[in-house]
Amino acid sequence: MARRVATTNLQEGVAVAAAPPTPTAAARARWRPYLLVAPSIVLTIWVLYPFAQSVWYSLHHYVLSQPWSRPFVGLRNYQKIFTDPDFLHTVAVTLEYTLLAVAIELLLGMLLAFLLNRDSLLTKILRPLLILPLMVAPAIGSLIWKLETNPQFGFVNFFMSFIGQRYFPWGSSPRTALLTVVLVDVWIFTPFIALLLLAGLRSLPQQPFEAARLDGAGAWFTFRTLTLPMLMPYILIAVMFRILDSLQQFDIIYAMTQGGPGDTLMTFQLRAYLEAFTFLRLSESAALILVLWVITYAISYVMVRYWNRARAHLRGA
Amino acid sequence: MRKWLAHLVLIAIYLFFLLPLYWVVAMSFMTNQQILTYPPQFAFSPTLANYKALVLGQLGGGVGTLQVDYLHNFVNSLIVSCGAVGLSLVAGIPAAYALARFRFRGADNWAFTLLSFRFAPALLILIPLLQIYQSVGLYNTYWGLILAYQLITLPFIVWIVRGYFEDVSPELEFAARLDGYGWWRSFWHVSLPLVKPGVAAAALLAFIYAWNNFIFALVLGSSDVQPVTVATLSFMTASGIQYGVIAAALVISVVPILLLAVYAQRFLVRGLSMGAIKG
């Protein structure tokens, strides 16, 4: 039962009244936060075991079809990753994919955000529709594009014929496969960046821009010295999200070509999947994934540190 | 920028984003013959044959009929996504409250750990988990997937709802305590109703990510529990040239999410950035 306290200071009175009045209530209050988070911990703590197993696999020579020989090999699998040309190719493809996709998404997304920031009948209709490609499952998006770039009847090919590329090979040629999957990625995820940047633009204070306009500042100058710096937190968060996702991209590529043609599109996770499920080389697969994990963990750590500051700033702004 | 130019560019960009969606829907109402005509006809008379085939589970082909159970996959998606989100709500809302209200040891670490699941490569856990599942009998079961999906849905619930709890003034709860409510009752009757929009947003987003997931179901499940994402890929390969039906399957797999998204527009920006950015 709470005690009513007569006091002129509302905060004090409230705090006193809310304080647990008995020792057992106080103990319950002390444990409460831990009890509240306990279910969420229970539901996820089990990942430690598979994680440890992955680490264990990566330090041994573990082939599923050779249960008789599982020696400890230390860091040899990791060494292989940094020296074997196949694995180096994996790194290259992953980086190419990430750089290409994120760069295009950022530029296109920024353009969209600025265009949609003006209020007009057109933008009012278009803004709610922006989210639609983003809601499509990446694997499904890939299949949709696969269907629509069919060399026989694909309507995308119809548009391509206007620039003389009626029979553009899309996913079936090593030269164009990367562009194809990047295209799907751009199609799905540009709205993500556009929406975040649009939210950012709409939250910017108006006074600096009005002052700049009064002082006769040009559009480019305003953009460079005002808009861009103020938008930077949003840009960085959006870009880091996309980088993290692109480094581990699996669905889009798997649905389109399963990593092919050949090994043209073998990014980290695809390669790890191949190693594990086709060659049954769980050790190489685990080593690959752990390297990827370390990279993404580092990036996400930096991002969260940055975003905690951004959250506090946005909250106070 | 000149207004008409801006409008032109905007429309051109939107055509890129929306035409593919429009076209899958259109194809799903076309017969194979109509689809195969090139140049593509933008005006055509629609047919429901493809959807009928999927619902009835029979694909007519040149070489006889193929039995398909695509609706079963749709139900699988429903079961797994709803189950995963439901479980995450039960575990995640209290956790979100605790992280918002209390300063306790390990709070920030736990919050970051949950978040790191969102950004970690799935195969890191999935490959060993597959072996574990096979030995304990969770492979190819709904509960197996629902449990694994917690890694996807729980972070959303905790991070987004936490943001909403942080926005609720603690004085409202204190006032309830002042009126004699115990902790649980003040949580249930005061705090929780105030974050209902946040819970709805989080649940929606978690549902979308659960529904759209591919790799978890690919690794940890087989034909019994395959959701539409994985099923559509094998369906596409198996159906060969039944393009109309394939298009219909693709539409069925995305329509629920598209409808939900249009309905929940407002919450999505905040949710997508995991609370980093208020929409």
The helix/strand series of chain A, from N terminus to C terminus, equals HHHHHHHHHHHHHHH
Under the CATH scheme, which architecture of the domain at 89-257 in chain A would be assigned?
Answer: Orthogonal Bundle
Number of strands of chain A: 0
Percent of residues in beta strands of chain B: under 5%
What series of H and E elements makes up the topology of chain B?
HHHEEHHHHHHHHHHH
Low-confidence sequence ranges of chain A: 1-9
Q: Summarize the amount of helix of chain A as a percent range.
A: over 70%
Structurally, the number of domains of chain B stands at 1
End-to-end gap of chain B: 26 Å
Structural class of chain B: mainly alpha
What is the fourth-level CATH superfamily of the domain at 89-257 in chain A? Answer: MetI-like
Binned strand content of chain A:
under 5%
What's the total helix number of chain A?
Answer: 15
Q: Tell me, rounded to a whole number, the average pLDDT of chain B.
A: 88
Oligomer type: heterodimer
Write a compact overview of the structure shown.
The complex is a heterodimer of chains A (317) and B (279). Chain A is mainly α.
Explain what you see:
The complex is a heterodimer of chains A (317) and B (279). With 317 residues, chain A is mostly helical. Among the domains of chain A are: 1-30, no CATH class; 89-257, MetI-like (MetI-like fold). Helices cover 72% and strands 0% of the residues of chain A. Chain A starts with 9 loop residues before the first helix and ends with a helix. In chain A, 42% of the residues are buried. Chain B is an all-alpha fold. Chain B has one domain (71-272): MetI-like fold (Orthogonal Bundle), CATH 1.10.3720.10. The longest helix of chain B has 32 residues, at 70-101. The chains are: A mainly alpha (317), B mainly alpha (279). Chains A and B meet through α1, α2, α3, α5 and α6 of A and α1, α4, α5, α6 and α7 of B.
